[in-house]
Design goal:
The chain is mostly helical. It is built from six helices and no strands. The longest helix has about 40 residues.
């Protein structure tokens, strides 16, 4: 049903996941929440395991496809991104110092429900951290361009296609469930209702 709507279908699934999660969190018993928290843990472990692999699979082939101009374009892009991030952080800090002192913020928050402990843990640690994956993709992408390593070009291209299938067949279908379990936890704790 959702595939007919394309990208809008995914947004619809995520919105339904949020609504279902809130509904479950507001009405669920402790036993149900134990299952929900365990499901969230397992799904989160797989998603966070996949992130570094997705970074390498999508960034390294993109750099290789840039060809000879990869170094110049990449360093220019990274420079602009760094300046943009530094500028945004500076503006956010200035706005915070100006606005936050004038806000009325409650110093005490009503006690929240405590989430039950995870019943089932399936630890899937990532192969590497996100920053390591990013640097690895940059280094291997540039080195492949510099050395004209055709074997690595094919490897990165195949790896990109493999991870695209992982994303489209596994990560995107489980994402609404992960979102639902996250919002179920927030609703059960009372974070959503007591802060609004």
């Amino acid at each position: 049903f959702f595939k007919r709507f394309g990208e809008f279908g995914l947004i619809l699934q995520l919105l339904l996941g949020i609504a279902a999660g809130v509904a479950v969190g507001l009405t669920a018993s402790t036993g149900v929440m134990e299952v929900v928290v365990s499901l969230k843990y397992v799904l989160g472990q797989f998603i966070f395991y996949s992130v570094p692999l997705v970074i390498i699979a999508f960034i390294a082939p993109a750099i290789v496809r840039l060809g000879k101009n990869a170094s110049t374009m990449l360093f220019t892009g990274v420079g602009f991104a760094y300046l943009s991030a530094a500028g945004a952080a500076t503006m956010a800090a200035i706005a915070g110092y100006i606005i936050i002192p004038h806000l009325s913020i409650a110093t005490q928050v009503d006690a929240l429900h405590e989430l039950p402990e995870v019943l089932f843990q399936l630890n899937i640690p990532p192969v590497m951290s996100v920053m390591t994956a990013l640097v690895t993709a940059l280094v291997f992408g540039l080195a492949t361009v510099w050395t004209k390593a055709e074997a690595f070009e094919r490897i990165f291209s195949d790896f990109e296609r493999i991870m695209m299938q992982v994303v489209s067949r596994i990560i995107i279908p489980i994402l609404p469930f992960f979102i639902a379990t996250t919002f179920a936890g927030l609703a059960y704790e009372g974070t959503l209702t007591k802060q609004l």
